[in-house]
Amino acid sequence: MSTFQAPKGTYDLTPPRSATFLAVREAIAAPLRDSGYGYIETPGFENVELFARGVGESTDIVTKEMYTLTTKGGDQLALRPEGTASVLRAALEANLHKAGNLPVKLWYSGSYYRYERPQAGRYRHFSQVGAEAIGTEDPVLDAELIILADQAYRSLGLRQFRILLNSLGDKECRPVYREALQTFLRDLDLDEETRRRIEINPLRVLDDKRADVQKQLTDAPKLRDYLCDACTAYHEEVRALLTAAGVAFEDDEKLVRGLDYYTRTTFEFVHDGLGSQSAVGGGGRYDGLSEMIGGPELPSVGWALGVDRTVLALEAEGIELDLPYTTSVYAVPLGEEARRVLFGVVTGLRRAGIAADFAFGGRGLKGAMKSANRSGARYTLVAGERDLAEGVVQLKDMESGEQNAVPLTEVAAELAKRLG
Ligand code: HAM
After folding, report:
1. Distance from the CA of 306 to the center of ligand 1, in angstroms?
2. For 178-205, what is each residue's pLDDT tens digit?
3. 315: Cβ contacts below 8 Å, ≥ 6 apart
4. pTM to 2 decimal places
5. Which of 4, 98, 174, 292 is deepest in the core (most CB within 10 A)?
6. How far apart are CA 66 and CA 55, in angstroms?
7. 17-173+227-316 placed in CATH 3.30.930.10
């Protein structure tokens, strides 16, 4: 070990576990790519104001969890705590919403940073794959995104997850509800911090995990009773589309989420094998966010799935992904001359698109064969002085154990044939 360790709340991804992370990212991205979502990448940091305005001044993410910094030039930046505000900012900046038909459908994958109290499944640096559909108000779009996330999880073999669904109303009906809720909450016996929260973000009080608080909330006014007709109809349509697609969900009127930009549809994917950090993904509609960051009216919807927690969910369900070995051929030279010749063969194989690796460092046959085994290669190529003198290499099938001499000039063609 060196003097240094990964910073608190972070961890390194190393082989072989890192391969699972890549496979999870790919499994989430594949259905998005197949459904018309284009890839977008934005900087790891943004102007702090973007998140303050976008994610919300009253959220934990903005008030407690942002990594902020002042540059030498005096700019106030923050490491991105989430992707939605950045992606929308970038789409507006590039005028993507004016370039073609709406919605603008985008997907992304990357690192996010939140200064949270670290625990199992909750890190200060974590990975998300996300999707945003910008500029269209259409329940089919909300349903599409939820269905694609469900499809991604299922393609990984996950089964013990549930989809929680709610509607938070819109700018017409939510303020009316907010006021009714505040009036109710102000009469309760609550601590100072929670009292402050009533004034800033009363819906978050419903999310309070403490039993004594929950007990007092039994008779709290329900958002469902306040939804305007347009929001109710929209929500019913989303529900019907999910049901028609065979995607099971649970109505959860307590689902408020930790970001302020949501309107109407909100949802969370929770996994039952993860303990307290059970949300493997979440998202919803954010019809007002564009205007909040200075853009035009662009009703939008999206989600982000946590890669770290998805990997933990796989482990909790005991699922081992069927990851193909990456090396097909492993070359073992015996002696100086063989090293040069076999390295030439390996280079040729690689250029021909055959995945090949090499026993470096002039180890003996035994150690090199161990590495060959560990690489998972289907074939090994072994050559010593006598083989070279005869112009052949020994080609060994690692599955059957069969070995035969193949002329050097034919080895690439022979391997291409056998590997199909
Ligand atoms: P979020 O619910 O804050 O939503 O994060 C989405 C997912 O990221 C969570 O469900 C979780 O799996 C993962 N995640 C969040 N924080 C951590 C952490 N500290 N450690 C490990 N994993 C974590 C958003 O970020 C929204 N931008 C989603 C969205 C996209 N809404 C609309 N479009």
Report:
1. 6
2. 999 999 999 999 999 999 989 988 988 9
3. none
4. 0.94
5. 174
6. 11
7. yes
